[in-house]
Amino acid sequence: MTQKTIHIIGGGVAGLAIAWRLAQKNIRVVLFDKSEIGRGASWAAAGMLAAVIEAEPGEDVLIPFVLQSQTMWPNFAAELQHYTGCDVGYRETGTLFIAPERDDEGQLKQRYDFLKARNLPVEWLDRATLRKREPFLSPRVTYGFYSGQDHQVDNRALVDALHAACKKAGVELHAHADVQDIKISNDRITHLIVNGESIAVDDVLLAAGAWSGAINGLLQNVLPPVFPIKGQLLALQMDMRLPLLKHVMWTPQVYLVPRGDGRLIVGATVEDKGFDSTLTAGGILHLLRETWEALPGIEELPLIESWAGFRPTSRDDAPILGPSSIKNLSFATGQHRHGILMTPLLAATICEYISEGTLPQIAAPFTVARFK
Ligand SMILES: Cc1cc2nc3c(=O)[nH]c(=O)nc-3n(C[C@H](O)[C@H](O)[C@H](O)COP(=O)(O)OP(=O)(O)OC[C@H]3O[C@@H](n4cnc5c(N)ncnc54)[C@H](O)[C@@H]3O)c2cc1C
User: Fold this and answer.
1) Is residue 90 part of a domain?
2) pTM
3) Which of 41, 97, 276, 285 would suit a FRET pair with 85, their CA atoms being 20 to 30 Å apart?
């Protein structure tokens, strides 16, 4: 019997994690990325695993999916670490939500009430408790709440570890391999055109992040409705002898993610600007001003990096998973602001779909058919 081969378009966390899982099942995997492996949104992200604190009204279908993926993280990180020897920077720091401005307090209370009403585990904190947990908070911060199950991973270390896992498992990885066109006959993809070369294929997975909605060769009614939402971020360097922040922290305007090596990631703007990756004075000013309102001590910290990335966003902000209207094409895209958090469950469900032909129940609400 000939071995089944799957060709994957896109080498971010989605493509890499699925490739690793498929290779573990002895399926031959060939993965193409048009640039360096893993330098898209997966590199740009902040790495929060914030299923609780980021839950929003209107996301009743999405919430169980992200909560389940969140529970998978400790084992997923440990397994990946054990398999590759790479530390992925998974840290159980918990997450605080605070309101530095009086005007924000209503929004804080509203979010807390919404999470409580859904039985999500958040704990209200008074001023004294907040200050005990984070002594460098601005004295203007009066209230906050805490989620003890929203943690973080170093998404860049995750990309590197998944890359190493794929190599070790025998995935055929091709960087700078642009899938420029797709050839279809009788509702099946027959060939991918990669850097001008025509490659015959059996099964294809589209995991091209924010670019998934504009792949040549797929008609408009086949393409997943995915578009880029730009986010600008920056990093400050904390002094690890006296770290300015220990928990992941949200305000209604920004979030702050303290890494184990002292980097303090600050994000992010939310901009509908296509693939324009310009860093703007307004974007950086917004991030720094809002961070300073919460944590005035940042004034002294070196600014070490700033960058932008593109969230792969669908029309309803939920992922697009599983079958397409082309028989041998499946999707793993549209994860929007949760693509790092979703990685373990997305990899498990899509691996099952490709290898067994059934999409697990938890992923069933997320097929592209919901947009028809
Ligand atoms: C500013 C920002 C902050 C974020 N913060 C978080 C967070 O804290 N927590 C969280 O869970 N998520 C976060 N996200 C979301 C998360 O980063 C994404 O949902 C996730 O990384 C998407 O992974 P992906 O593999 O689908 O896409 P990507 O990582 O973008 O990978 C897609 C890959 O496809 C390749 N590609 C595209 N077109 C082609 C082609 N034609 N041929 C070959 N290759 C192609 C690209 O080069 C790219 O490497 C954030 C995103 C942004 C932008």
Assistant:
1) no
2) 0.97
3) 41
CA torsion through residues 245, 248, 253, 254, sign: positive
Domain identity same for 75 and 159 = yes
According to the model, what pLDDT value does residue 138 have?
95
Q: Are 151 and 90 in contact (CB under 8 A)?
A: yes
- Domain with residue 177: its CATH number is 3.50.50.60
Structural domain harbouring 43: 5-85+155-225+316-371
* 160 CA distance to ligand 1 middle (Å): 14
Q: What is the helix (H) or strand (E) element at residue 262, kind and residue range?
A: none
Q: How many domains does the chain have?
A: 2
pLDDT of residue 217: 96
Ligand 1 first shell, C-beta below 6 A: 9-15, 32-35, 39-42, 44-48, 178-179, 207-211, 215, 231, 233, 267-268, 309-312, 333, 335-341
CA of 209 to the centre of ligand 1 (A): 5
Whole-angstrom distance, CA of residue 33 vs CA of residue 52: 32
Segments of the chain with pLDDT less than 70: 1-2
For residue 268, the CA-to-ligand 1 centroid distance in Å is 15
**Does residue 326 sit within a domain?**
yes
Which tens digit of pLDDT belongs to each residue from 50-99?
Answer: 999 999 999 999 999 999 999 999 999 999 999 999 999 999 999 999 99
Which residue, 275, 293, 314, sits at the end of a domain?
314
Residue 40 alpha carbon to ligand 1 centre in Å: 5
